[in-house]
TrEMBL record:
Family in the record: Belongs to the iron/ascorbate-dependent oxidoreductase family.
Coiled-coil boundaries: none
Designated name of the protein: 2OG-Fe(II) oxygenase
The organism of origin for this protein: Paraphaeosphaeria sporulosa
Keyword Cytoplasm: no
Any GO MF annotation of the entry: metal ion binding
One Gene Ontology term from the biological process aspect of the record: small molecule biosynthetic process
Length: 322
């Protein structure tokens, strides 16, 4: 079979969320376990997030990114202690990449009124748009994908033989970040530039919505040594595991490289990723005796400390918690 013909597993989560027959939940747990062990990725339907929420979110993203450039820059995440807000195209460059990502992005997370732990928790930045055009649909969508991320975590834990109660040890106040993204048309990017260059995700569960029929995501398969395209299909989410899950599971679950190339010459592409990590000071809940006591926050700093201009205070506070 040619690599281009390989498809990631498509798993119907309704058997877990709303089981109708004996064994439905166990079947879904096994399917997710096998997909994450082999690919680190799977596609899913029956996830419980309505099309109205998805369409409302995509409309809001489109409205946001069509604001004047200077208005978007005034919302820069670099001016926010909790790193919420707007990231301009060209601001993200990974070690080894020749060119920065062409995407632009906007970040939100938990809506905490008080800044805590040097910015891990804090308030969001909201653009000056009517609430019904942005804040309300975006927040409703965030809550829905927050819930779906928690469900995926439950399934992954049970796939390794752990009870759901393990969630209580690392997700009392989890960091759940959402990244809204617009990729420019292929014709507007530089030769050799990616929308997002090849990378693995940092932490826990990623819940990805792709704008229907706007393809671009590709996943690396080690055994085939090639990139596999993942089509953007309406009402189908893409789920993947990050590096922290791979570390915590002792490699039972995989964290796979992926990248985005907007295939459309003259059209932009929208997507949205929600990342459910865990509490900032949580350590590996699957192995309490693990001699490496790195916290979620420490792993985040290790991954992004050189990429972003994190304050020394931010780093000291999180490192001191070990």
């Amino acid at each position: 079979m040619a690599v281009q013909e390989i498809q990631l597993p498509l798993i119907d989560l309704s058997g877990y969320i709303d089981p109708k027959s004996p064994g439905d939940r166990e079947r879904v747990i096994a399917e997710v376990r096998d997909a994450c062990a082999k690919f680190g990725f799977f596609q899913t339907k029956g996830h419980g997030i309505s099309l109205d929420l998805q369409k409302g979110l995509l409309n809001s993203i489109d409205t946001l990114f069509n604001l004047p450039k200077e208005e978007k820059r005034s919302l820069s995440f670099l001016q926010n202690v909790s790193r919420r807000g707007y990231e301009e195209s060209g601001m993200s460059l990974r070690d080894g990449d020749k060119l920065p990502d062409s995407k632009e992005a906007f970040y939100i997370g938990r809506e905490d009124p008080v800044v805590e732990h040097a910015g891990f928790y804090g308030p969001n930045v909201w653009p000056p748009l009517p609430e019904d055009q942005f804040r309300t649909p975006v927040w409703n969508y965030y809550q829905a994908t927050h819930n779906l991320g928690s469900i995926i975590w439950e399934i992954l834990l049970q796939g390794l033989g752990h009870p759901i109660s393990v969630m209580e040890s690392f997700a009392k106040k989890p960091m759940v970040m959402m990244k809204m993204i617009r990729y420019p048309p292929l014709a507007a990017t530089l030769p050799g530039q990616f929308g997002v260059g090849a990378h693995t995700d940092f932490g826990g569960v990623t819940v990805l919505l792709q704008q229907p029929d706007k393809h671009g995501l590709e996943v690396w398969l080690d055994d085939k040594e090639d990139w596999v395209p993942v089509k953007a299909v309406e009402d189908v989410y893409v789920i993947n595991c990050g590096d922290m899950i791979m570390k915590w599971s002792g490699g039972a679950y995989k964290s796979a490289k992926h990248r985005v190339i907007n295939k459309a010459d003259n059209e932009s592409r929208l997507s949205c990723a929600t990342f459910f990590h865990g509490d900032v000071f949580a350590t590996n809940p699957l192995n309490p005796d693990d001699p490496v006591k790195e916290t979620v926050g420490q792993l985040l700093i290790k991954r992004f400390g050189n990429q972003f201009s994190l304050s020394d205070e931010w780093k000291r506070e999180v490192k001191a918690a070990a």
